[in-house]
Amino acid sequence: MSEREGLRGYVTARGFGPYVIPVPVQSLALRDYCARKKKLYVLPANENCFPHSYLVLEGLIHNLEGYEGIVMCSMHMLPQRAVRRAAVFRRVLDQGCSLHLVLEDFAVARPEDVAKLEELLIIDRLAAQGPRLTDVG
Amino acid sequence: MALIDSFESAAEVPDGREFLDSAYVIRDVEDRNALDSLRHQIVLAASRMIGRPEPAEDGAFLDNLHEIVPVDKLNDLRLGLYREINGAAWFRPTYFRLARQVVERLVGNELAMQNRINFSIQMPDDRTSLLDLHADVFAGETPYQVVQWLPLVDVKRTKSMFILERPKSEKIVARLKEFSKGGMSALYEAVKPDLVWLDIPYGKVLIFSPNVLHGNVVNEERTTRWSLNCRYTGLFTPYGIGERSLGSYYSPITARPVTRMGIAYREPGGFEE
């Protein structure tokens, strides 16, 4: 097997979760994350801006040969549907790679990590449906 | 008879026709001395950044960069050059000079230009500098722009970039949803036989519409690719998403006197019924 090196960046001009972060700022965050984790940063692929399209992500995970994994700003950039998300995790892990989330400072490197992240996503979604701080009092 | 039945000038027609047919044109730079000087300044900055003396031959230095700089230092060098050269007052005007006439023929003569010119350096076998198959409009950029793509060395085959010419690109983009499962990799496989690898010697410049599919792959040639790219759009055309708007991404470069007068006009007020 060839030696793996570097995390391939993944960015998007779309808003994700509660964030809208310009692509150049996302790139800075990814570069900083890689520097802190002592990983080689590989220039990012930019997702299409039309809603619900994950063509670039799907293409990226199709062949991660030579890379250690993917780095993106947040878990909210992953597909919204759990089944589609699970397929992404499976594809990444099956290739011996990991998926790094900068804002959550979390890496999905093993199946156990998938469960932890899924729990976080579910709680986050439930919390978003609850009352807002401004609704109270 | 001196009457004229077309609004297009004879000089405009060939560029426009070729561009609309294929989505790109390749032309000689319009000021070769300016190109050589621009490249020399980049070589001087690069050699200083890597602690080397001024090279004897600029083209050979750029072509063979991979022999003196390790790939894990490449992005730092690229960003260092990007920051320093983009900070020079001469950079954008000189760059524009290289293709001004053809850009004006294709886009118009009141232009907005990208604020910073991008640097691309692709060493042989380097996987860290890839720009996979894409169209800039997919990322929210304006469809009314062109890219001025300038090689600083001779480029061809995988040392260059590929493009899917206009009719083919538009046809497959209309079917984009069909590629949801395999993503852009599947799309790349589908269009691969039709991709055109641009052969562009140093001294020529490419102007293309980034609305069509394009990108690059791992450079399998023996020398390093150096290229610059920069976008232009008509000053009064719609801009893309916020981060690609006038100010943050584009700035006006050739606003005409009438536009300036229009901007300065203030309607008299204070009347009462």
Would you write up a description of this structure?
- The complex is a heterodimer of chains A (137) and B (273).
- Chain A is an alpha/beta fold.
- Chain A has one domain: Resolvase, N-terminal catalytic domain (Rossmann fold, 3-Layer(aba) Sandwich), CATH 3.40.50.
- Chain A is 39% helix and 18% strand.
- Chain A has helices spanning 23-36, 55-62, 82-94, 111-129, and strands at 7-12, 41-47, 69-72, 98-101, 106-108.
- The longest helix of chain A is centred in the C-terminal third of the chain and has 19 residues, at 111-129.
- Chain B is an alpha+beta fold.
- Chain B has helices at residues 12-22, 32-49, 58-63, 74-86, 91-97, 100-106, 166-173, 183-191, 257-264; strands at 24-28, 111-114, 118-122, 145-151, 162-163, 196-197, 204-208, 214-215, 225-234, 250-252.
- In chain B, the strands form 2 sheets. In chain B, strands 1, 2, 3, 4, 7, 9 and 10 form a 7-stranded antiparallel sheet that branches.
- The longest helix of chain B has 18 residues, at 32-49.
- Chain B starts with 11 loop residues before the first helix and ends in a 9-residue tail after the last helix.
- The A-B interface holds A 6, 13-14, 22-24, 40-43, 45-50, 53-63, 66-67 and B 72, 75, 127-134, 138-140, 176, 179-188, 241-243, 248.
